Amino acid sequence: MPKMKSHRGACKRFKATASGKIKRERMNGSHNLEKKNRKRTRRLHQSTMLDNATKEKQIKRMILA
Q1: Where are the domains of the chain?
Q2: Cα 38 vs. chain centroid, distance in angstroms?
Q3: Basic residues composition bias: which ranges?
Q4: Rounded Cα distance, 63 and 28, in Å
Q5: Rounded-to-integer distance, Cα 49 and Cα 26, Å
Q6: By C-alpha distance, which of 13, 12, 27, 24 is closest to 51?
Q7: Fewer CB under 10 Å: which end of the chain, C or N?
Q8: Sign of the torsion angle spanned by Cα atoms 61, 28, 41, 54
Q9: Counting Cβ atoms within 10 Å, is residue 59 exposed (0-12), middle (13-18) or buried (19+)?
């Protein structure tokens, strides 16, 4: 049986922290930033943790395979 391969798209979008949580980037922070106010663009450049437990289990399976 061959080794399981990790999902390369998920590996580029999500990172696992040392405690096992999943870190992700926020959407809408890459272009059309002149329309968005400064407070919003600062918030969009911060990374955040994934809070959906069912998605977290799926993503862990994809990136830690």
Answers
A1: 8-63
A2: 22
A3: 36-45
A4: 23
A5: 10
A6: 24
A7: N
A8: negative
A9: buried
